[in-house]
Design a protein that fits this description.
Elements: H1 4-23, E1 29-35, E2 38-44, H2 49-57, H3 60-77, H4 79-90, E3 94-101, E4 107-114
Antiparallel strand pairs: 1-2, 2-4, 3-4
């Protein structure tokens, strides 16, 4: 059985690897928070150079909407991979996945709703 911190660290690493392999560009930073049956992953610096260029060259709303549509399609097509990753690491299945990305800050948030809170062990306190 893993601690909450071990699950969060493993999910962060797996999401970083996923972004690198599926998007071709890994994030600058990943933070994962396990809150009961919610798994929140914040990825910073996820926009590729091409995406940043697209956002700057098109009208702001058009570039933003186009980028969000593409990211949604990419994540939906890779959803089984992410769900399997969470199941393997946390030991519980994913019920739903929610996603959004900010074209202004380059931050992406992925929220997994889990079937139940993962079983975790207490962190040992150091003397």
């Amino acid at each position: 059985m893993k601690t909450t911190g071990e699950i969060e660290a493993a999910i962060s690493q797996a999401m970083c690897t996923f972004a690198q392999e599926y998007m071709g560009h890994g994030p600058n930073e990943v933070r994962t928070h396990l809150l009961g049956d919610l798994l929140v992953v914040r990825l910073h610096g996820v926009l590729t150079a091409a995406e940043q260029h697209l956002i700057k060259k098109l009208q702001p709303e058009k570039g933003r909407d186009l980028l969000k549509q593409v990211r949604i399609q990419l994540l939906e097509s890779a959803r089984p991979v992410m769900e399997a990753m969470v199941l393997e690491i946390a030991g519980v299945s994913v019920i739903s996945l929610h996603h959004d990305i900010s074209t202004a800050t380059g931050e992406e948030v992925v929220l997994f709703t889990l079937a139940e809170p993962p079983l975790t062990r207490e962190t040992r306190k150091r003397a």
